[in-house]
């Protein structure tokens, strides 16, 4: 949690945006690869919101339910029709490298990545990663 809070402070200072963080009362300690994955996913999600949607405000939620640790990042920006990130139709386009990177980082630590967005309705990412190996 401290690491993600530090990232949020840095992001706010660099972009003059606001990030609201809500964390569950108990966030378990996780392995270093999971920490790195969550850090990079959050970093990319915040950067995408500013760069591509021009958002000035993000909402970040972190909690556990049974074993998985959940990270959700929401913005009320422009939104977009999301590309497929799974299966044979998964995007390989250069402009989607950040989305693919978030997906791959979650998968590398045994987690999942979901993206939902629609034009005019903002964007939401959901990441679930195991707390324990």
Task: Indicate the radius of gyration in whole angstroms.
Answer: 14 Å
Helix content: 25-40%
Q: With helices defined by DSSP (H or I, 4 residues minimum), what is the helix count?
A: 3
Low-confidence stretches: none
Mean pLDDT: 91
User: Secondary-structure element sequence?
Assistant: HEHEEHEE
Instruction: Label the overall shape.
Output: globular
Walk across the major sheet and give the strand order: 1-2-3-5-4
Which structural category do the helix and sheet elements fall into? alpha+beta
Name its key features:
133 residues; globular; alpha+beta
Note down, in words, how this protein is organized.
The protein has 133 residues and is α+β, with helices and mostly antiparallel strands. The chain is built from 3 helices and 5 strands; from the N terminus they run αβαββαββ. It has helices at 2-15, 32-53, 97-108, and strands at residues 18-23, 57-64, 69-75, 112-117, 123-129. The chain has a 5-stranded mixed β-sheet with strand order 1-2-3-5-4, with helices on one face. Helix 2 (32-53) links the parallel strand 1 and strand 2. Helix 2 (32-53) runs antiparallel to helix 3. The model has no long low-confidence stretch (mean pLDDT 91).
């Amino acid at each position: 949690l401290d690491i993600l809070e530090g990232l949020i402070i840095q992001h706010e200072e660099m972009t003059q945006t606001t990030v609201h963080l809500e964390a569950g009362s108990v966030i378990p300690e996780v392995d270093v690869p999971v920490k790195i994955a969550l850090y990079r996913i959050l970093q990319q999600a915040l950067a995408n919101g500013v760069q591509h949607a021009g958002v000035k405000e993000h909402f970040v939620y972190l909690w556990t339910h049974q074993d998985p640790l959940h990270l959700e990042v929401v913005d009320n920006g422009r939104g977009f029709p999301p590309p497929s990130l799974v299966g044979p139709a998964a995007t390989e386009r250069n402009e989607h490298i950040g989305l693919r990177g978030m997906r791959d980082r979650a998968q590398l630590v045994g987690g999942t990545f979901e993206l939902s967005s629609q034009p005019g309705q903002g964007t939401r990412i959901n990441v679930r990663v195991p707390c324990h190996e």
